[in-house]
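Ops channel
N.P.: pipeline sanity check, posting one input/output pair.
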């Protein structure tokens, strides 16, 4: 596209006295925004559960298998796996009384 045609295009679609560079930035920005919108871009926070290590205070829910608890220094609550329960301690096996030998 030659300069004369581009200037006519800027005059037709752009604001009066707007520099070519500003018009070009806005046009490219608008095209990029439309592309992202059509591809399903999501702005802002995504709804859903909080993953391991993410803060979970307030109305935020942890993903399945995680719970909201204090996991490190300080009082910050984060989504974390439940603490491992140690298996119950086994008592030593009972010793059976010694067998009595038959008298001779």
């Amino acid at each position: 596209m030659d300069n004369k045609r581009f200037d006519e295009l800027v005059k037709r679609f752009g604001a009066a006295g707007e520099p070519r560079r500003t018009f070009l930035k806005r046009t490219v920005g608008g095209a990029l925004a439309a592309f992202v919108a059509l591809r399903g871009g999501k702005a802002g926070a995504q709804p859903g559960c909080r993953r391991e290590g993410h803060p979970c205070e307030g109305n935020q829910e942890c993903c399945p298998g995680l719970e909201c608890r204090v996991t490190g220094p300080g009082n910050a609550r984060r989504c974390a796996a439940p603490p491992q329960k140690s298996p119950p301690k086994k008592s030593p096996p009972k010793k059976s009384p010694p067998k009595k030998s038959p008298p001779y």
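N.P.: looks fine end to end. The helical segments are 3-13, 20-38.
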